[in-house]
Amino acid sequence: MEDSAGNIINPLISKGIIKPGKISILDGGMGTMLLAAGMKAGEHPEVFAFNNPGIVEDIHKKYIEAGSDIIYSCTFGANEKKLKGCGITTLQAVLSAVKTAKKAASLKEGVKVALDVGPIGELLEPLGTLSFDEAYNIYKEVMSIGEEAGADLIVVETFTDLYDAKAALLAAKENTSLPVVVTMSFESGGRTFTGTTIPSMATVLTGLGADAIGFNCSLGPKEILKFAEELVQWTDLPVVIKPNAGLPDPVTGKYNLNASDYASDMLAFKKFGVSMMGGCCGTDPEYINKLRLSLKCERDARNAADIKTAGMDSSDSDLNSSISINDRDYDENILENYKSTRKIRYGVCSSSKMVELNKVRVIGERLNPTGKPRFAQALLEHDMDYISRMAIEQEESGAQILDVNVGVPGADEPSLMIETVKAIQGITSLPLQIDSSNPAAIEAGLRAFNGKAIINSVNADDERLDLILPIAKKYGAAVIGLSLSERGVPQTAQERFDNAVYILKKAIEYGLKKEDVFIDCLTLTVSAQQEQAVQTLNALRKVKSELGLHCVLGVSNISFGLPERSHITESFLVQAMCCGLDLPIINPNVSSLMDAVYSYKVLSGEDENCSDYIMRFSANKESKEISGDIKCDVHADMTIEEAVLKGLKVQTREIAAKLLESMSENDLINNKLIPALDIVGDKYEKQIIFLPQLINSANAACEAFELIKERLAKSNTQGVSKGKIVLATVKGDIHDIGKNIVKIILENYGYRIIDLGRDVPIENVVKAVIEEKVNLVGLSALMTTTLPSMKETIEAVKAVSPECKIWVGGAVLTPDYAMEIGADYYAKDARASVDIAKLSFPETIEDNL
Amino acid sequence: MEILLKAEDKSEILRFLEYRGQEMDEELSKQIDRCMEIINTAAEPAYISREFDMKPDGSYPDECSFLNGNDIKKHLLGCKKIILMAATLGAGVENAIRRAQIKNVSDAVIMDSCASVLIEAVCDTIDAMFRAEYEQQKLFLTMRYSPGYGDLPISIQKDFIYLLDTVRRIGLNVSSSGIMIPRKSVTAIIGVSETERKAEKLGCAGCNLIKACRFLRRGVTCGR
């Protein structure tokens, strides 16, 4: 629905659930009311509500009498996971609870029923084991039933993980036509337990199309006030506040605010233009009544003042049709306040990190297989550890956004994009730029990403714009527009500018905000088309000054084909930044480029007090020390064996490089690295060294292996492998350090490890064994509770591949138990795993088994 | 809660790493210091506890009916009240260790041990606080007893954290297979008695890990 000016009207308003300029009153706590009405501690509220609809209806009625305009159905924990074993289904719980709420709501005209949806109660990946899709499906069920049952809106509340909230919000938007309110719970530091920040929450939920957002539970009104102040800077949506009755006493659990104090504290939220207010834990109908009265009192007092000063007439019968004016708090001043106090800040983000776009921000370009055979190989082998390491390396070099491109021939790009995005967001908090020509891969990446991403890219070609812009709108992503079209790369700045204007116009038509459109003015190779460098800079200047858009540019292409490329690249980068480039896409590991960015920011004034610059250069020495590399003087005559034994990564790599000048890769592995690792293993066995030393040696050897892999990938030679091994931490278990130690050590012995990760479903192990024709599988489990799933995995693998050998390890296993569950071998540690592998692959090196 | 690893915790961290007096160079020692520092920065210890009265006939309060097995019964014999507590280091530690596993597995292993020592230190601090408090009322506490000890199954974890509302209060969750997340978390039951409890030690005999203990394998114990 649109207003007369063509603006889209918030569905909460168009459906009459809230009214512009009026604070809608929500209800208060349900749990405490149920306990008082006879629910036992530990009993599920939804089960109690199902069995005692009359009691719940009474509670709803009390809230309506107290002044609630919107009541929440008793469905907070009504989902498949939470109701498991409770004797009622989600369908029964939701249908019954919404019916009860609607019955109560019929008491008074205008009262609306919200389907209350709480978190599933299990953590999502990467912290937990629940997948995004599983969560989505669970919410989808609840919400579809809720709409069917007649709820007027959906409230997603008390969430602490933005990813979880995203799953719920998408489930609501894709499967119902109801307006959706999302409120999250923050701790006193302004973050949730999983690290979600307020700017990220506001940006992501606004982008995904929530109709109102805010806070519930967490803390009391006083503590939440500062959160609201921050929130309104990052969103233009209606804001919801539903705090607890203060803070709980640590011993008694009783909340410290009485109804009057609570109600008067709540008034402070009016200055932020809050649209909906209610209470959470510890509040009851008395709190809601006091809240209504204090809002009304304050309103009356100001009305009186307004009348005295011949102020405006504040009654508006149109908007207040069914309810008598005396009964309402009504204030269109709020609208004015709300508009004037809200400055919308803007950026791209992950759930825990906001990168505000108010200065130059570096986009790291390294996660891209183009021209990087080793990276392409890692993608094809699903070697997410390698890719994750590239991500960490760029972050540590100063990248603030990471471009992710997984386009390798022969791969299923959408699923590879999901896998890569999930791996990267598990180990870095940087926002991502989803880079693909494949729309399905772009959508898959945006859906999997826990944050607000950038799409790379569209251009002025209608076909591409019509495909990608709706996806950008749906997921709230920013989009890069290349200033070219289906007719090719324009030769003049003006034509590039015209393309930028066209892209912007189309983006606005599709509902994107102007600030979500970034323009790329195209870098061409200066050695081939020298006149084009100036055109790029002129186009940049024009786009920045006349359109005010953010500008991205892949910089390094400029110097292609020239000697000492870095000089040209660096100089072009600086000139481009002067012309308005604020999102350079560069290799952050090239420190001269990063130095240029830091210097530019000092001169442009973006780096206040030169503090980042000073940090970078005065802390340089120190940061090298803490980078994790063990440094030590290299003696010219140090052997690779010594370097490995001492766990010296840099030296091992350097010596390996030297040895490879006169030695084949196979010889280096068989005659140098493996004997060195055998010595390390023996020393560990004899307890001359202990675990961290063993792994440090393995890490050092890894550096030599990485060098070998890079060389082989570059020369397009098949990799050396002594055999393929599948490793997995079994379904249900998330302890994977042990498995990872085994992995790194086996890799060093030349085996190719197919690492399926942790919490691995049985069918994934079976699939890998069949598809990769693997004859050796290692399974790990650390908990007694996950041993049954280890046994089931062994049975499933043996059923499809009886000749496949399986070894097991992990704290709770014993040799006897290993045999009992059908394993072929038991390994007490990583060293023992090597012996098992040697036994299974007795031959010497073969090429690429 | 501001509880940090201190220099004197290093020997305990080494014990978790199954260290038996091997020669240790300065670099490794620095590596451990660095990992302690990372864990200290990442950890946000939090806890929650609730006290319940035992029924006059000595049976468990209704809320705690999920407690089962002989060992916990024996442990709580003669207690008037019980305290259920849960503590966690928070998600930051989990994230830091996950990242370290990609960058440097040996850091991850050391950080994991650091975190194990820190969560024990957090529990010991809470424990000592309770002990001092109850002593003023002339009441005495048993040692902490956790799901997974003796015949008290880990599967009660779900009911345990539900009762304490740990998800909302301290961000402690349990996965469908009963694993607490963040992993560096502890749930425990403490009995409150009017008579002083003789010093108890769980000892290896009472431990369900006895057959597969990684400490015993290397000739040491975990010290409980």
TrEMBL record, chain A:
Domain B12-binding N-terminal: 627-720
Single GO biological process annotation from the record: tetrahydrofolate metabolic process
MF (Gene Ontology): cobalamin binding; metal ion binding; methionine synthase activity
Cofactor(s) this protein cannot do without: Zn(2+); methylcob(III)alamin
Metabolic or biological pathway: Amino-acid biosynthesis; L-methionine biosynthesis via de novo pathway; L-methionine from L-homocysteine (MetH route): step 1/1
Protein name according to UniProt: Methionine synthase
Organism (species): Johnsonella ignava ATCC 51276
Alphabetized InterPro entries for the sequence: Cbl-bd_cap, Cobalamin-bd, Cobalamin-bd_sf, Dihydropteroate_synth-like_sf, HCY_dom, HCY_dom_sf, Met_Synthase/Corrinoid, Meth_synthase_dom
Binding annotation for Zn(2+): 217, 280-281
A cellular component annotation (GO) from this entry: cytosol
Reaction equation(s) it catalyzes: (6S)-5-methyl-5,6,7,8-tetrahydrofolate + L-homocysteine = (6S)-5,6,7,8-tetrahydrofolate + L-methionine
Enzyme Commission code(s) on record: 2.1.1.13
TrEMBL record, chain B:
GO molecular function, one term: methionine synthase activity
SUPFAM superfamilies tied to this protein: Methionine synthase activation domain-like (SSF56507)
Gene3D superfamilies referenced in this protein's UniProt entry, alphabetically: 3.40.109.40
Record-linked InterPro entries: S-AdoMet-dep_Met_synth_prd (IPR017342), VitB12-dep_Met_synth_activ_sf (IPR037010)
Domain of life: Bacteria
The protein, known as: Uncharacterized protein
Organism from which the protein derives: Johnsonella ignava ATCC 51276
